[in-house]
Design a protein that fits this description.
With 378 residues, the chain is α/β, with parallel strands linked by helices. The chain has helices at residues 2-17, 21-31, 37-43, 72-81, 143-150, 152-159, 191-206, 221-232, 254-263, 290-299, 364-372, and strands at residues 50-51, 63-64, 102-110, 113-121, 130-136, 162-166, 209-219, 239-243, 276-281, 306-314, 320-328, 333-340, 347-348, 357-358. A ten-stranded mixed beta sheet has the order 3-4-6-5-7-8-9-12-11-10, sandwiched between helices. The protein has a two-stranded antiparallel ribbon with strand order 1-2. α2 (21-31) runs antiparallel to α4 and α7 (191-206) crosses α8. The longest helix is centred in the N-terminal third of the chain and has 16 residues, at 2-17. It is globular.
Length: 378
């Protein structure tokens, strides 16, 4: 059965990458009929229930996960058809640039590969060199869309940061997803992590960015890729922001990727964890919230001298949330995890000028910038 399943998924992947979405969808639908290997696999993977933290300290109160409204079969169909399921697409006019600010269209080529990217340079930086934040968009998104939805450029103007938005082309992935699930894109000095690192070094070389204050964040597939890049290059990135993402090493192919998205995965032990802030909606029907817990647990240093505090809050007329903070003995914040009630697979506190945003949640962008600026390489 495993051989037939692998063959089927390989065909689906090949059709999707080549842009033959109709054929890929048809094959998925045929594969999901009863008595097929893929149908059997998906049927055995249904999960509902409550979300329990993996911390090995004092027990924490549980926040319930809402019933999953989108089965994995439907998720597969929607991904093959194009798009990130479980969210509502909304757009409005983007904010105009402040006078003197720049939102440059650039490209980077290295021995590892080529990527276009956008670079935001604020009009009146408080100081130079400036902190640099690298933002990795989610599937089907673009740098412009992601910038509008996260509102990160407005915060960059406020805090005097530069922001780089690498673009994942459809030639690398038919849905413009970062390939976080492929072994060749999960390690230092190869694949997409090497491209992202080289692009970041290029910005540091050519623009007034501070090499001691470089950060990376992303949404969904971009979040998983950001976690990989941050841990592969701790010499470049001082901290990472993971929104609706998955732990490093949680998948090795398309089949295991869908399993991790559906059921959660623990990933592997990291040699060099980095400071992390993570957000996850507890009603996320695309990437299971257990992945958010696993991301945090994976990034925590293997030491006992840490303090964990939890507080609950709510946005005005919006979602309630729980914020868990892990603090080292010297008082520095190692990790923050924001669990957002009723939030789906969308950027918390985002702007409706971009796709896959949830304005009712706490402002993930502002909290990430706050967290990032606490961390400077010595």
């Amino acid at each position: 059965m495993k051989s037939a399943l692998s063959t089927t998924m390989a065909k689906i992947t090949a059709l999707t990458k080549s842009g033959k979405l109709h054929d890929a969808t048809a094959l998925i639908q045929a594969s999901l009929r009863p008595s097929t290997p893929l149908a059997d696999t998906l049927a055995s993977g249904a999960i509902e229930g409550e979300f329990t933290r993996l911390d090995d300290h004092a027990p924490q109160p549980k926040m319930p996960i809402r019933p999953r409204r989108t089965g994995l079969a439907e998720t597969l169909r929607k991904i093959a058809a194009g798009g990130m399921p479980g969210t509502t697409i909304t757009r409005s006019s983007p904010e105009p640039l402040p006078s003197g600010a720049q939102f440059l269209s650039l490209s980077h080529t290295s021995p590892h590969g080529h990527r276009d990217y956008r670079l935001y340079i604020p009009a009146k930086p408080a100081q130079t060199p400036m902190p640099l934040i690298v933002m990795l968009h989610g599937c089907t998104q673009s740098p412009e869309d992601f910038a509008a939805g996260t509102g990160m450029n407005l915060l960059a103007e406020e805090f005097g940061c530069m922001v780089a938005y690498p673009a994942q082309p459809s030639g690398a992935n038919a849905q413009k997803c970062w390939n976080w699930f492929r072994p060749g894109d999960q390690s230092r000095d190869q694949g997409e992590p090497a491209i992202i690192a080289a692009l970041t070094r290029g910005v540091l070389r050519d623009y007034p960015a501070d090499p001691s204050r470089v950060y990376i964040a992303g949404l969904s597939a971009g979040a998983a890729a950001a976690a990989i890049a941050a841990t592969a290059y701790p010499d470049i990135f001082s901290a990472v922001g993971v929104h609706s993402g998955l732990p490093v090493g949680s998948a090795h192919d398309v089949v295991s990727a869908f399993s991790a998205m559906r059921s959660g995965a623990s990933g592997h032990v990291l040699r060099t964890p980095v400071p992390i802030i993570a957000f996850h909606g507890l009603a996320d029907a695309t990437v299971h919230p257990d992945n958010g817990t696993a991301v945090i647990e994976q990034m925590l240093p293997r030491q006992s001298a840490m303090t964990r505090t939890t507080r609950r809050g709510a946005t005005p007329n919006g979602h309630s949330y729980r914020q868990t903070v892990h603090t080292a003995a010297d008082g520095s914040t190692i990790a923050e995890y924001w669990e957002v009630e009723q939030a789906s697979h969308a950027w918390s506190g985002g702007h409706t000028s971009g796709t896959y945003t949830d304005p009712k949640g706490p402002n993930a962008s502002r909290e990430m910038v706050r967290f990032f600026l606490q961390h400077t390489k010595r």
